[in-house]
């Protein structure tokens, strides 16, 4: 079985993957992937920043995204 990005074991076969999804949907198997998503470190960092600093970081990120979208 291949390993996912967090080391979890997932079936490589399409049919086996479909069975796994059905088992997760019916509650036979617990899906642990969703519990690991998100960045706890990012949230902790944001809580430690002042509102002005968060605004400055958000503004720089927005400008970078805008430049990337309009680079052509």
Tell me what you see in this structure.
The protein has a domain at 38-69. The protein has helices at 14-26, 40-48, 51-69. With 72 residues, the chain is mostly helical. The chain has three helices and no strands. Residues 31-72 are annotated as: Disordered.
| Proportion of strand residues | under 5%
Biggest β-sheet description: none
The overall average pLDDT, rounded, is 80
User: What oligomeric state do the depicted chains represent?
Assistant: single chain
Can you give the helix content as a percent range?
55-70%
How is the secondary structure organized here?
Layout: H1 14-26, H2 40-48, H3 51-69
Biased composition (Basic and acidic residues): 53-72
Region (Disordered): 31-72
Organism: Glycocaulis albus
Offer a concise description of the structure.
By secondary structure, the chain is mainly α. The protein is built from three helices and no strands.
Descriptors:
single chain; 72 residues; mainly alpha
């Amino acid at each position: 079985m291949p390993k996912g990005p967090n080391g979890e074991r997932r079936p490589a076969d399409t049919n086996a993957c479909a069975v796994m999804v059905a088992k997760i949907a019916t509650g036979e198997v617990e899906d642990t992937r969703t519990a690991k998503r998100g960045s706890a470190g990012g949230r902790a960092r944001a809580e430690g920043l002042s509102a002005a600093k968060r605004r400055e970081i958000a503004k720089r990120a927005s400008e970078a995204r805008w430049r990337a979208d309009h680079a052509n």
